[in-house]
Amino acid sequence: MAASFNRSGPSDLETSSVNDQSVSSRSSNRSVRVAEKERRKNEAEDPVVLALKYFNDVEAGTPVNGNDEVEKQLVLVEKVGYSRGLSPDAISVMLEFAMSLRMGTTLCPRVLKCLIPATTVPQEAVVRAVVWLGVGKIPATTQVLFVKWVLTVFDMIDEKDQLRAIYGFIFNFVTDENLCPFICHLLYLLTRKESVRVFRVRKLLELQSKLGRQPFLLHLLSLYKVFCPELVTLSIPSRMRSGFKNHTSPWKSALLFVQKRNGSQVSSNVSLAVTVKDKTSTRKRKHHHLELPKLSSVVNKPAQTETSSSRKLVPLTQLHSFAQLLENMHRIELPSQMGSLLGSSMALHYLDCVQDESALLRLNFWLGYSLHEEFLFCSDGGASQYSEEVLQFLNRLLSTQHFLQEGFSSSEAFLYKFLTVWDGALYRPEILGLLSNIPVIPSSQIGRLLFEPLMQLFFTSSLFFKCGLIECLNNMLLKWLTWHSVYALEDDLDISLHSHTSINMTLSGFKDSVMELVLFVGRLASVGLQLEGCHSVLLSFVLDFYETACDTFLKYGLPLVLLPPSGVFYPALLASDPVSVDRLAYIMYRYKANLTSAKNQEKVTEQAFHISRQTFREFNSYIAVMANYLWNSRVFHPGMGVQLEKELLLKSNVPEYWTSFDLIHHPAFMSYAIDFHRKCWPGRKDMDLNSIKLSKPWGWYLEYLFTQGFDGLKLFFQGNVRQQKAQGDGQGDSTPTQAR
Amino acid sequence: MERHHNSVTKTPLDRVQRRSKSKSYRQSLRSCLGATCLTPALTTRRLNISRRAPKSHNITEKVNPEQLALMVKTEWQLSYVTPLYQFRHTQLKSYSRQLSAFIAAEKQQGLAVEVEGSHGSFRVSFSVVQGMSEAADDAETVLIQIHLKRLFSRQDEPAKVVWSGLLTCINGSPDYLRSLPKDFTCLPLLCSSGAEGLTSAVKSWFQQTFDCYFGQLEISHTSLQWMIALWTNCQTESAIQFLKMIWTLPVVPPLKVTYTVNGQDAWELWSSVRKDPQKEGNGEDEDENSIDIEEVMRFMQGLKSHFYRHFRLDLSAGKLDQVSTALGSAKCSGMIKISNSKYMISTLTLLTECALLKMPI
To answer: Is residue B215 over pLDDT 90?
Structure first.
């Protein structure tokens, strides 16, 4: 609404005089009082003030014809009006003059046309003028002109309470044939819930039967329907889409000019139009069940509503800005169809606060119905075809869930059924997106509901799907963990098994579910990597997952540490791209941080969770393997994860096979070693990579690698290997530190 | 019946608790699903595998004969309906007015219509069908009729009924019904008959007023087989006269088979596949009359093998499209006609069950 007018800024009438005064102010020690007096005096001499005084005081019945005085004064006012706009007082005076017909009807339109407000329009003036409309003998065209003027400056009227108070009075003018369209528009702007009454509805319907389908009647009635759907009903045809006609032509340009000149922020309601339906919804849709319901107010109110409190409820449809939403937060009436909330971003803000279980259930019924009808019950095979509309629907659902940061239970229930019939290709990104939003599933059910169908899909689908699924499961894990960290914090849960058990899910129940998920991904990834020949893209997604999984304790406060299976560990360690090895090193570094921190906590608090020996043993053996492979050149050493018969290794004719996966000979790092060799010994013709292995160049080589961006390796090295150097076990190379 | 409740329908309600974010190690309502409470999807909902044999109900004594006559003579198109929000059986008068006004407004696009008052040619009436509900949890059945007043009809001429609809719930799963909050009324089955346009107008009014949604309810292959068995089982009490089945076989061009069996013959086959009631008769009396899915399947197998013997055509490859007896007829597209009011309840029980299976949550 028009709010930011500037009272302190002197009206245009005053500015000239004040400026004069400030220039001519001779003595600075004048009292304010005297200055005020002077100002008034100057004002009194201002021609415009004089003109207004004239119009204010002119006696009724003064002739117009041949009256030079009136002509002179009016021209003056017009000049100011068209150039700078009139002050609120000036508008009051001129409006009163025109509408009271003190000098007959001829001047009236001329005066109205120059009523361009500089800042605001005083409400009293408008109210008085409306009263004149009732008593005076104003010609029809002038009456129309006046109402048009009110419509134009509506947003600049300073207050509207008194105008609303005379709603009934204004309403009476609808019977006037000429005024009717404009009065309807004015009423549309003024209508509040309490203004909608049965007798008014009847009157309008009576007019409708007389005048036929008139858009202005229809739009007013449709607003009535928004407030009181129990009184009136109608359905607006799509072609009657436009709102009220723009009645502002006589003032529009002048107003814009004045506003521009004054730099005023006041916006007039020039482009008020009712949007009845958006274009897309008028198109005949193939899938009706995917249409979002229209936001409309409730007809069918609970029995006890007809109390005074319910009168104050604000339908959500009537809120157009976030500020309004906040203002009315406590008395918002939910729409008749909850599904319509998904259609507006503002409604979603409200949905986030809705506590009413029935309301959410309604939403879930609608959503579940739509999804089931589209994907599961369709008899015409509609769902097996790709359609833009379905895509839009799913994306809206996704963005809603993203906004609310949780999934809907009906979409979850739908997914469990849909996964069993899904081909893994139809709307893949969207379905996987929805899937990643599902909340924690109890570990007893997770296998049947999720893992079985997903496993089938995973092993029968392309590499692309495999990557997508791993990514989806990573997101799922992330959301579960985030959820845990938020709620565990809110409940002030200390990290222990003994602390309070929740209503819905205990900490250990949650832990079990997360464990199931991580182990499941481990199984998928191991077999998947094998199937796809350790494809580096798939490996990258798998490592993404483990980057989440390795930090469950430190980052999310979940007392659980689960290591990757060897089916993931070795492919990453022996990968041909250095990035994977580096990321594995980083992951192992984080695992160590988590394990040590858990260990420390175990020492401090008695209640701390217990990490099994097995986990530590496994971790230590991984660390040992990494150190032995990358640093110590002890590949296929007996007692390590991967063992090969000595004869077999000899048969392979690989010279010094035990070095083949150290940082020099590792396929991922060989090129770095060669590069380093060149830089280190530029003159040397024959390349002997083994010379890097010597103590000094080896240190340099590591430094060189770390400068190449292998931070994971660096962290891993610093955390696990270097401190051992001091102990020096005689060979000059390093042994891993072990977590205990 | 209770003992055989195989279709466990867990519902949202036993999961929802008041949400207070400040003190909850749990998920919010929108997505709540935890260890102690399962979503419906977590439990499989299936059709009952055993049901009580239809007893002839003395429904004629309980239900208004006029309403009963309407229900019996009409062929209904079936739909399922999600639970109705804020539906009150006490407000039917006001619903009648609102729906009349809504239809009038739909008919004359762009003309507003007052809700109170008369609305031209269509008049809607809502009424409760007393005496239909069987179980305590069932909501009362509601009958909706749309009358058309002819413009030049005589004053005393009664308005013609052009559309009727029956919203009903007979022996609905108590677990499901009890789980819904008080604000919801579950009448999952809509039987409608009349012009398509009016059906969709009524549906959209219900959607806008009670935030409920309608979907097509087909009668599945298994349900049709159930109907055959249930009807045949009535032979001794009231003759089914004939048992007619229409099958479609997937050959090119599709082969349509109409297979009619004499009522008495069907009954004899049926009694031969029935389990010996004496064997299990030591249980409660109620169970004596229950029918198992195995019996139904045996019966169907008997019918099919008989057909095969004569025509060398195995019907199990085909699809059962339609069944009819003197007691009623049912089509897989979701059309049903109940010709004998005595067995209406058992048929509607089966259909209510089918409709509840379609509930999204």
So the answer is: yes
Give the Cα separation of A225 and A222 in Å (integer): 5
Rounded Cα gap, residues A295 and A337, in angstroms: 7
Closest residue on chain B to A300 (Cα): B209
Structure-model confidence comparison of residues A647 and A383, the more confident one: A647
Which residue type is seen at B178? Answer: R
A477 with A446: CB under 8 angstroms? no
Cα–Cα distances in angstroms (integers) from residue B13 to residues B38, B82, B214, in the given order = 10, 15, 21
pLDDT at res. A688: 83
- Most confidently modeled range among A347-356, A362-371, A538-547: A538-547
Contact A487 B16 (CB under 8 A): no
- What's residue B39's pLDDT? 40
- Residue A333 half-sphere exposure toward CB, CA atoms < 13 A: 24
User: Does B35 contact A230 at a Cβ distance shorter than 8 Å?
Assistant: no
Q: Does A500 touch chain B (CB under 8 A)?
A: yes
Q: Do A299 and B209 touch (CB under 8 A)?
A: yes
Q: Span A34-51, mean pLDDT?
A: 69
- pTM beyond 0.80: the answer is no
Query: What does the pLDDT average to over A445-467?
Result: 93
What's the token pair of residue A499? 């602390």
Inter-chain residue contact B110 with A369, CB threshold 8 Å: no
Would you report the helix, strand and coil content of chain B in percent, each value rounded to 5?
40, 25, 40
The residue with greater pLDDT, B24 or A364, is: A364
- Segments making up each domain of chain B, as ranges: 62-217+346-357, 221-278+289-332
- φ and ψ of A361, to 5 deg: -65, -40
**Phi and psi of A437, rounded to 5°?**
-90, -5
> How many residues are given for chain A?
740
User: Does residue A413 sit at the B interface (CB-CB below 8 Å)?
Assistant: yes
B114–A299 CB contact, under 8 Å: no
User: To which residue do tokens 């109402």 refer?
Assistant: A147
- Written as six digits, the tokens of B301 are 């197998």
Contact B28, A364 (CB under 8 A): no
CB-based contact B221:B332 (threshold 8 Å)? yes
Handedness of CA A263, A264, A268, A273 (dihedral sign): positive
| pLDDT tens, position by position, A198-241 | 899 888 888 888 888 888 888 888 888 888 888 888 777 666 65
DSSP state of B15: T
Q: Which residues contact A600 (CB under 8 A, 6 or more apart)?
A: none
Least confident of A284-298, A328-342, A382-396, B121-135: A284-298
Residue A102 near residue A62 (C-beta atoms within 8 A): yes
Question: Looking at this predicted complex, what is its ipTM?
Answer: 0.86
What residues does B129 pair with on adjacent strands? B141
Number of neighbouring beta carbons within 10 Å of residue A212: 10
Estimate to the nearest angstrom the gap between the alpha carbon of A546 and the chain centroid: 30
Lookup: tokens for B7? 């279709």
Q: Are B113 and A293 an interchain contact pair (Cβ–Cβ within 8 Å)?
A: no
Distance from CA of B327 to the nearest CA of A (A): 29
Rounded distance, CA B277 to CA B290, Å?
Answer: 9
| A 197-256 → B contacts, CB under 8 A | 198, 201-202, 204-205, 208, 213, 217-218, 221-222, 225, 230-237, 240
